[in-house]
């Protein structure tokens, strides 16, 4: 199993920045509609944290002490088995919160997956006791939390459906099209794609070789170029 640096929790994160009059709350539509009293509680008892690209934000066995609201950057949430097999569950983008953190806070449970900063990130950290109080006291805050929770759970069921029932060639074509830039290039190793799709690296390698044999892609070390985007998109349309 791969080893990673210890989670950069709010308690061990760089010194908190000064909140600019609570402007971060306005980046979340569900929070911006809170009444002034609840907003003041959120703003007054939260802080801004930063985590560097590649660092672990949270990991298995750790208990969340804060609800994190992502202000900038991207966090990749993935499950890692005892044998080191990985699968990407979802990504958290700016303006979103983490459903796994929500679930762990509500259940007073430890994390069962890890969150990795794919870029430098900035987030507002709301302590557990504030989260508990607001869930109990504020219906708009509670609605915001459970609406985000519900949407992400639906996304996770779609991932389960894809892994269990969708053809790998279709899923891989869809992933190549999604991850590539406007020129048809993407920086991705076979290992990274295997994590994205929840399968073995060797399986990805065989399928990429087949795409290359058909003249759809060209591979080089750590890079892939789409040669026939039309064919890949046609295959990807069978996705879902």
Helix-strand topology string: HHEEEEEHEEHHHEHHEEH
Q: Percent of residues in beta strands? A: 15-25%
Low-confidence stretches: 1-21
Number of domains: 2
What's the total count of β strands? 10
Number of helical segments?
Answer: 9
What is the CATH class name of the largest domain? Mainly Beta
Strand order of the largest sheet: 2-6-4-5
CATH topology of the largest domain: Jelly Rolls
Largest β-sheet summary = 4 strands, antiparallel
Radius of gyration: 20 Å
Helix content: 40-55%
Give the name of the CATH architecture of the largest domain. Sandwich
**Structural class estimated from helices and strands:** alpha+beta
Distance between the termini: 32 Å
Name the shape in a single word: elongated
What is the assigned CATH homologous superfamily of the largest domain?
Jelly Rolls
Mean pLDDT: 84
So what's the oligomer here? single chain
Structural features, described:
The chain is α+β, with helices and mostly antiparallel strands and 240 residues long. The chain has 2 domains: 23-163, Jelly Rolls (Sandwich); 167-236, Winged helix-like DNA-binding domain superfamily/Winged helix DNA-binding domain (Arc Repressor Mutant, subunit A, Orthogonal Bundle). It has 9 helices and 10 strands. The protein has a 4-stranded antiparallel sheet with strand order 2-6-4-5. Strands 1-7-3 form a 3-stranded antiparallel sheet. The longest helix is centred in the middle third of the chain and has 27 residues, at 139-165. It is elongated.
